[in-house]
Automatic annotation (TrEMBL):
The organism's place on the tree of life at top rank: Eukaryota
Protein name, entry field: Ribonucleases P/MRP protein subunit POP1
GO biological process: tRNA 5'-leader removal
Gene Ontology CC annotation, any one: ribonuclease MRP complex
InterPro entries in the record: Pop1, Pop1_N
PANTHER family: RIBONUCLEASES P/MRP PROTEIN SUBUNIT POP1, RIBONUCLEASES P_MRP PROTEIN SUBUNIT POP1
Native source organism of the sequence: Eudyptes filholi
Span of domain Pop1 N-terminal: 4-97
Length: 289
């Protein structure tokens, strides 16, 4: 009897959730938000999910291998055209403060013996991206943290500078812990207050209204198509959504901010990469007040 009752309830439930209702934009976005609570999706997730075998790593859902044999096409794109890769799962830490104070403390976690440092002239100007290996403070050549890339925001005449450091998500917590210790940034400047509970309730109500009796949405609905939930990224794959994401040092004023999933990162490979960028990106007109 229980089995028959379960089958009967399943049939009734399937009737109320027709594919057309499930595929409405208002329900689709709500469903996508629900499905990426544990593993964050990249902006290009839908495109990859249709063409790649997806794996769950480092708190993200990433494309691992293509479903079709596209190796020759990728090789052709790299050698003759342009191949784009989504590296947005890489973590970004932002340092803000006086330039001399930043360089003084950053010199403790890297060494000139390994190559470039944060003080390299071409990188310090903000024109080029640099790469180096980070170590625990004053521990070189022991206790290596891992490789990172960095880029300075070009100077604007002020002594305050901005530095973005990119690293693999597996290194993020170790590097962040070391930077907070070096700059003595223990006080949370901002506390991230997500909206997972209220957002979820609203989305479920919207789905229930549309799918409750299998009826189509009424034309006299006041919100209508405007009632579309906005895509929300709750935290990221390497941070608990209830943790703070920015810390400040009371002694030096240095601020460390976690910009993961706020700044997207793409890699273009191939001889036509530059021409693709010039055709895609257009300089905005400078407006002065």
């Amino acid at each position: 009897k229980q089995a028959e009752k379960a089958v009967h309830q399943k049939k009734e439930q399937s009737k109320t959730k027709c594919r057309k209702a499930r595929r409405r934009h208002i329900n689709l976005v709500a469903e996508f938000n629900r499905r990426q609570r544990k593993n964050i999706w990249l902006e290009t997730h839908i495109w990859h999910a249709k063409r790649f075998h997806m794996v769950k790593k480092w708190g993200y859902c990433l494309g691992d291998s293509p479903t079709e044999k596209s190796y020759r096409a990728c090789y052709r794109a790299m050698t003759k055209h342009c191949l784009l890769q989504d590296l947005s799962y890489y973590c970004c830490l932002e340092l803000t403060g006086r330039e001399n104070e930043l360089l003084k403390q950053l010199a403790r976690i890297c060494s000139i013996d390994t190559g470039l440092t944060f003080e390299e002239a071409c990188c310090l100007s903000g024109r080029f991206e640099g790469s180096l290996y980070l170590y625990r403070a004053d521990r070189y050549p022991e206790d290596m943290l891992g490789p990172v890339t960095f880029i300075w925001k070009p100077r604007d005449g002020s002594e305050n500078r901005q530095l973005w450091i990119w690293m693999h998500p597996a290194l993020k917590q170790d590097v962040l812990r070391e930077l907070k210790a070096v700059f003595q940034c223990s006080e949370p400047e901002e506390i991230y207050i997500p909206e997972p509970i209220t957002t979820t309730i609203q989305e479920e109500k919207q789905i229930d209204v549309v799918l409750s009796l299998g009826k189509k949405r009424k034309k006299e609905d006041k919100e209508g198509e405007k009632a579309v939930p906005v895509k929300k990224i709750i935290g990221d794959g390497t941070r608990d959504p209830f943790q703070s994401y920015s810390w400040i040092s009371q002694s030096t004023g240095i601020v460390i901010s976690d910009r993961t999933m706020e700044i997207l990162r793409y890699r273009l490979i191939g001889p036509l990469s530059h021409s693709v960028l010039t055709e895609t990106l257009k300089a905005a007109s400078l407006q002065t007040v």
